[in-house]
Write a structure and sequence with these properties.
447 residues, alpha/beta, eight-stranded mixed beta sheet, 15% strand
């Protein structure tokens, strides 16, 4: 076994080390190089990307499952309705919640699907279903999530930035069989105060202050160790590993081209997005799109006063109102910002959670409901300013144009210029389509 393989193997920690082994370890330690610190974690998420350029996707993930009856499919006058009023939007005849007034003003750039029907009502299974496009119950296949799929299809090979960035605190889907090259780089808040997480930072890109001067030396030592490892191992895995480290180093050296420095933005624009994690996350998403990142995921989950997020089993109306007041300015400003910068036509914005909520109220709340609920699409050439499908007056069933998950995924993929029948090959040699077989783009939205 080679020296570096032996040094990295947990089975050989007790083996005697040669003088050269000790020298290598001493050099690495002295210069701060670690195989278990921030750089390896960054490299694991920074891997190679391939394919075509041009379009991007931003997923606004509503963790917990938002109530369609209190956002985009209100039922005024029915017993299942709540206290929220349905207000007119920029598109005559389309009405949404009064607590989304800025989104109402952007309706010409959005299309509401009110007839999505899925099968899973468990948070974990439903999240995996919505983020992969497949039912994962009892499946042996580790399906890649949407971000990983699109990073592979749309990613830029020479970017200093990863092709998939996530601002989601709790992820239940990953790169699956596509592997770590297409896993997300996760962004966390710079503040430890959950009530003041308006700034976002990529801690993995920030070397310790006492080591900034020694950073070039650290990279030189790491490059030496990595090169020797690759030469001795002589495998594709080693080459990929080395390429990932090279990209990670570029990200550190360039500070990811300042994409994460939100303080560079006009303070008034930051205010418009909202000085909270979700609002600043949407601003960061726009900055990443500008720099060619294929997929950015921004989650709106718990906020002060609404610890359960969109999972409103109790106190539904107060929680949805509070969440809507965070969602509305961030989403509306994102759309306007993308449009003003000429990016909306090439950027698909997807708003969704894992399921909807029950039309019938129970103890002031709404429970999980996958049978008939709403999602929203905008940008990337989507034929906007319209509503697809409808539900019955009580909201219990789809009345017109039931949309399945495969059709929804096919619409997303087609809007981004990708053939929905495109396949990836699993490690077992099985062809896995990006979209579950039978899925067709919604014709009213793609053209």
């Amino acid at each position: 076994m080679s020296r570096l393989k032996r040094l990295c193997s947990p089975r050989d920690f007790a083996a005697p080390l040669s003088r050269r082994d000790m020298l290598q370890i001493s050099m690495a330690s002295a210069l701060g190089v670690s195989f278990c610190g921030w750089l390896p974690r960054l490299a694991a998420a920074a891997g190679d990307s391939v394919a075509k350029r041009g379009k991007s996707c931003i997923l606004l993930w509503m963790q917990g499952g938002p109530s369609q009856l209190d956002t985009f499919d209100l039922k005024p006058g029915h017993a299942n309705s709540g206290p929220f009023k349905a207000v007119e939007t920029a598109v005559p005849g389309i009405r949404i919640s009064e607590h989304l007034p800025l989104i109402a003003g952007q309706m010409k750039d959005l299309a509401i699907i009110r007839s999505l029907s899925t099968k899973e009502a468990d948070h974990g299974l439903a999240t995996q279903q919505m983020l992969t496009g497949y039912q994962t119950r009892a499946s042996a296949v580790r399906y890649p999530c949407l971000g990983s799929l699109l990073a592979k299809e749309l990613g830029q090979p020479d970017s200093d930035l990863p092709n998939f960035v996530s601002l989601s605190p709790m992820r239940m889907a990953d790169a699956g069989f596509l592997g770590p090259n297409y896993a997300p780089l996760t962004v966390s808040g710079a503040s430890n105060d959950p009530n003041a997480r308006a700034n976002l930072a990529l801690e993995d890109l920030m070397p310790r202050a006492d080591r900034k001067k020694s950073l070039p030396g650290q990279f030189q030592v790491l490059d030496f160790l990595e090169k020797e490892f690759a030469e001795e191992l002589q495998s594709e895995a080693a080459k990929t590993h080395r390429a990932s480290y090279a990209k990670a180093m570029r990200m550190v050296e360039t500070q990811a081209r300042q994409a994460f420095q939100l303080e560079d933005e006009n303070p008034e624009l930051r205010d418009a997005y909202g000085r909270n994690r979700f609002g600043q996350g949407c601003l960061l998403a726009r900055r990443l799109v500008e720099r060619g990142v294929a997929f950015t995921e921004v989650a709106l989950s718990s906020i002060p006063g609404s610890p359960a997020g969109w999972d409103t089993h109790t106190d539904n109306f107060n929680q949805v109102k509070a969440l809507s007041q965070v969602l509305d300015p961030a989403w509306a400003t994102l759309l306007k910002d993308l449009r003003d910068r000429g990016l909306l036509d090439s950027t698909l914005v997807v708003w969704m959670g894992e399921f909807g909520r029950t039309p019938k109220l129970s103890n002031g709340g709404r429970d999980h409901f996958p049978l008939a609920w709403s999602v929203v699409l905008g940008g990337a050439g989507i034929r906007s300013g319209q509503v697809i499908g409808s539900t019955t007056p009580d909201g219990q069933e789809v009345k017109d144009q039931r949309i399945g998950l495969a059709d929804f995924y096919a619409t997303i993929v087609a809007a981004l210029g990708i053939d929905p029948t495109t396949e990836n090959i699993s490690p077992e040699g099985r062809p896995i389509p990006l979209v579950d077989r039978g899925g067709k783009p919604i014709p009213e939205l793609i053209g």
